[in-house]
Amino acid sequence: MKARRSVLIVDDEQNFLSSMRRLLRKETFRVFTAESGDAGLAILEKEEISVIIVDYMMPGVDGINLLHRVRRDWPWITTIMLTAHCELELALRAINELGIYKFFLKPVSNEELIGSIRHALSCLNGDSENYPQPCDPMKSKEACLRALEQDFPGITKFEQDGPLRFFSPR
């Protein structure tokens, strides 16, 4: 049985969060929302999140800083950025520095956003053959290792009994 995946949406616009909760309530994944970067970090500390959707412009911890933290502390999480303020430099920075999966301008198409979330989750579930876009193989492998570790604690740990010895053929 596959683990139920979770999506976290971080945006300081309460109306946007409410509409996202309504839009995604019938999906098979769990949805968490946060009104600030700090609230999003608190959720990340407690919950196992698969995909995070972050608004760029927020008071306090903005989207870029939040995604830097996600990349550092939870590198397996698939990241999506939203913004109402399109700047080419911002998009390039998010893609090049943060390796985000998708970058959307607000208002975003509901179908496009849901499709991207489903695709990202399908990659983590190893079910990407039904989708035309390629999945990030490193994130899929990391997700596989996390699932193995969850089912079989300690399986991904390596303990060395003694010094490594390399043998060369004679």
Can you give a write-up of this model?
By secondary structure, the chain is of the alpha/beta class. The chain has one domain (6-151): Response regulator (Rossmann fold, 3-Layer(aba) Sandwich), CATH 3.40.50. 43% of the residues lie in helices and 15% in strands. The chain has 6 helices and 5 strands; from the N terminus they run βαβαβαβαβαα. It has a 5-stranded parallel β-sheet, sandwiched between helices. Helix 2 packs parallel to helix 3. The protein is globular and about 60 Å long. The protein starts with 5 loop residues before the first strand and ends in a 19-residue tail after the last helix. The model is unreliable at 128-134 (pLDDT under 50).
Strand order of the largest sheet: 2-1-3-4-5
* Cα-based radius of gyration, to the nearest Å: 18 Å
Structural class: alpha/beta
Largest sheet: 5 strands, parallel
How are helices and strands ordered from N to C? EHEHEHEHEHH
Low-confidence stretches: 128-134
Task: State the helical fraction.
Answer: 40-55%
Contiguous helical run count = 6
Span between termini: 49 Å
Supply the number of structural domains: 1
> Could you give the count of β-strands?
5
What is this structure, in a nutshell?
The protein is of the alpha/beta class. The chain is 43% helix and 15% strand.
Please name the defining characteristics of this protein:
170 residues; five-stranded parallel β-sheet; alpha/beta; globular; 15% strand; single chain; Rossmann fold
